[in-house]
């Protein structure tokens, strides 16, 4: 997982919901033997299967306790393998993710049914990174939960389709910040190879990956990447990527 060297996998979030951040780092996980590499830039061929279906009823699943320490193995978008460690620490409604996979990464995650969506950055904190996880309703509406690094409470967002088909299209979004303040915005979703670009009307944008009826969107600018994990009995299994590329890597995290 190489962020500078899991990536300049890049995203963008001026965030609908701009908060000051300052999450304190906790203990660093033990060192690993290899690093993630940068995903290729636009124009490179995409990995197939990013839109893989998962036959699970996420909306009614009981949230699992994902906090703890994990061993991780994965593949970069270019096929190169890496391994390392991951520590997940609960902070209120959200989770802090701390990897050591050749170098250190830190991020924020939210659970939504049996999915964990994470935005991460290189270094000891994920300052500036945010993540949204949506469930797609039968009528195409998006029902989301979001978190921002350094803020321990989660926000919510619902987006009603006003045009388009499939996931791509135009939406009216309404939401609530962790402080209780409500907001409204227009949202446009555009295909980006195997991924999707999300653009809100307040100059906010991000990149998402769709798996079945779930869409995980990472937000936060050039330094942030994203991961969409499915919670499994023995740990987490995910796909990761970022802004500026439609290629993705994979990662499996097994609880220690």
Detailed description of the structure:
By secondary structure, the protein is mostly beta strands. The protein has one domain (68-255). Helices cover 0% and strands 51% of the residues. The chain contains no helices and 16 strands. It has an eight-stranded antiparallel barrel. Strands 6-7-8-9-10-11-12-13 form an eight-stranded antiparallel barrel. The radius of gyration is 16 Å and the shape is globular. The two termini are 19 Å apart. The relative contact order is 0.25. The model is unreliable at 2-61 (pLDDT under 50).
Task: Determine the number of helices (DSSP H or I, runs of at least 4 residues).
Answer: 0
Specify the overall morphology: globular
Major beta-sheet overview: 8 strands, antiparallel, barrel
Q: Please give the domain count.
A: 1
Radius of gyration over all CA atoms, rounded: 16 Å
Strand order, sheet with most strands: 1-2-3-4-5-14-15-16
The number of strands is 16
For the termini, the CA-CA separation is 19 Å
Low-pLDDT stretches are 2-61
Question: Mean of residue pLDDT?
Answer: 78
Approximately how much helix is present in the residues?
Answer: under 10%
Class computed from helices, strands and strand pairing: mainly beta
Determine the strand fraction and express it as a percent band: over 45%
Order of helices and strands: EEEEEEEEEEEEEEEE
